[in-house]
Specification:
Elements: H1 2-9, H2 12-32, E1 35-38, E2 41-43, H3 46-76, H4 81-102, H5 109-130, H6 135-195, E3 200-201, E4 206-207, H7 209-219
Antiparallel strand pairs: 1-2, 3-4
Helix pairs in contact: 1-2, 2-3, 3-4, 3-5, 3-6, 4-5, 5-6, 6-7
């Protein structure tokens, strides 16, 4: 939560690039832990992070994520390189479509569901087009699609929650500033009313409304 809040506090460009970097590194880690089910075909959860990146980070974020994800997948080699790269592009483009469809600032459950459906739809399409056709592989593929859907929905829901939490926190902080300023203003007015316009001279300095205000500012 704290990391997300720190990214939110950065400039828009920095936060988007940082978010894309986090999703890209997560995708790379997922590929490192992948399971090879065929010659050059791997099962992992990189699609989840590839979808979350554009949906919640936009174009800048997904560019970073795609670059970080594509390079390691190409280096892994195998017959599944081409389908994997096609899948990366399809998930990223579909995620961007969800991003612009639901609005850049939107943070609700529908967006999380759309993100998960995007991953499941692309995974199912790629499984049908490039599947081996064997029964065990089909069963495993369908099970993996279900896992990806659940993982994507969970990740999107967490990000949605933190976006709403951060927005609510910012609203509370911004609404607290006028109240603090109003309290200070009333306090200074009361001080001026108590002292009056005539200066009060002690053994060293004279107190006037102006010197009291200056002194109060120094204390702050």
């Amino acid at each position: 939560m704290h990391l997300h809040y720190k990214l939110y506090r950065l400039s828009k460009v920095q936060s988007k690039l940082g978010f894309g970097l986090m999703m890209g590194l997560g995708a790379v880690l997922s590929m490192m832990l992948s399971v090879e089910v065929g010659s050059g075909y791997y099962l992992d959860l990189r699609s989840t992070l590839l979808a979350v990146s554009p949906v919640y980070g936009g174009p800048l974020a997904v560019l970073v994520t795609v670059a970080l994800t594509s390079a390691p997948r190409i280096s892994m080699g195998g017959a599944g390189v081409e389908p994997a790269l096609i899948s990366i592009v399809l998930v990223s483009v579909s995620g961007l479509a969800v991003h612009f469809l639901f609005g850049r600032g939107s943070a609700d459950g529908k967006k999380a569901v759309a993100c998960a459906v995007t991953v499941a739809a692309v995974s199912l399409t790629m499984s049908i087009v490039h599947g081996t056709g064997s029964a065990p592989m089909t069963t495993l593929g369908l099970a993996m699609i279900g896992v990806k859907f659940v993982a994507t929905f969970a990740a999107a829901s967490v990000i949605t929650y933190f976006q709403a939490f951060t927005l609510e926190r910012d609203i509370k902080e911004s609404s607290g500033i006028p109240r603090q300023a109003s309290v200070v203003s009333r306090l200074l007015s009361q001080i001026i009313d108590e002292l009056g316009e005539e200066p009060f001279c002690g053994s060293i300095n004279c107190l006037t409304p102006q010197t009291v205000i200056l002194g109060f500012r120094e204390l702050r």
